[in-house]
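User: Let's play a game. I give you a shape written as tokens, and you guess the letters that built it. Ready? Here's round one.
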């Protein structure tokens, strides 16, 4: 219930009613999953791995110990089981509809097994990243989403093995989408103030860092598609280029709303730009000048 309430507050913070947010999220998941099954015969294993990765992440955050301390072993385990089943439900619906019965049974079994995991505490191991020189968006984001990036790279390998370019493009879109989530939340004001540069320099530095680090994440997918689908390089390069453009737009929109989180107005403008790309010629300058105005309060 606590996690549910936190999610509701986050959706309201974006200016969206929670019910609408859940419906849109579920609809997007159904569409992407259906597309995955239509493009490859590996849809069941990919969804199973993605679901188990999310469940493992939930079990590794220390919440298990908190629930046991508050509710006791038996009730805490029951709450964990219900949480796992709620998270697994969208995956189970798609797997059942697509006839992936083996993956469905494995996911149900995995949900139950992970509810009984007993974590002794946080591990001392810290996942190394290549992004440590430029904190903090990619460093934190990568450590929180590596288990989502893995299926994207697996999809790329599958796309190459079955010679399906569309599946590879979907994998690239997944990497871009994950990278963009790293810039959704605003950092504390002192993180911005510590840069001690003019607002334009701050924005440039953020966009340069995002470009270099995002290129590192998306390069394996782009290189694979260009190498194994040389007859259609235009689509690969098109999505790669506009991935960078929308990443820059997200960064500008973040600081256009700063110090608040991006809300519904920014989200609607970005969605319209995705639907009609020429709008970016208006949206990017609009977000840029609004960002400069907001950052002038902290940077001179």
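Assistant: Ready! My guess for every position:
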């Amino acid at each position: 219930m606590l996690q549910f309430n936190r999610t509701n507050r986050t959706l309201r913070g974006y200016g969206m009613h929670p019910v609408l947010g859940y419906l849109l999220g579920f609809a997007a998941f159904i569409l992407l999953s259906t597309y995955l099954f239509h493009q490859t015969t590996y849809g069941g294993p990919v969804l199973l791995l993605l679901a188990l990765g999310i469940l493992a992440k939930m079990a590794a955050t220390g919440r298990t110990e908190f629930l046991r301390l508050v509710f006791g072993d038996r009730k805490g385990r029951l709450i964990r089981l219900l949480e796992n089943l709620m998270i697994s439900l969208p995956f189970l619906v798609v797997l059942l509809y697509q006839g992936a019965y083996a993956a469905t049974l494995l996911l149900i079994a995995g949900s139950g097994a992970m509810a009984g995991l007993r974590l002794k505490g946080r591990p001392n191991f810290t996942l190394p990243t290549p992004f440590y020189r430029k904190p903090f968006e990619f460093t934190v984001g990568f450590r929180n989403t590596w288990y989502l990036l893995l299926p994207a790279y697996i999809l790329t390998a599958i796309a190459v093995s079955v010679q399906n370019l569309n599946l590879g493009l979907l994998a690239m879109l997944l990497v871009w989408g994950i990278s963009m989530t790293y810039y959704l939340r605003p950092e504390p004001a002192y993180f911005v103030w510590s840069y001690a540069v003019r607002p334009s320099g701050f924005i440039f530095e953020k966009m340069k860092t995002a470009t270099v680090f995002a290129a590192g994440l998306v390069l394996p997918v782009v290189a694979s598609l260009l190498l194994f689908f040389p007859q259609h390089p235009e689509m690969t390069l098109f999505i790669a280029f506009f991935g960078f453009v929308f990443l820059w737009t997200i960064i500008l929109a973040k600081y256009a709303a700063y110090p608040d989180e991006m809300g519904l107005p920014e989200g609607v403008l970005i969605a319209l730009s995705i639907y009609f790309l020429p709008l970016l010629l208006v949206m990017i300058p609009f977000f840029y000048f609004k960002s400069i105005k907001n950052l002038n309060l902290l940077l001179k």
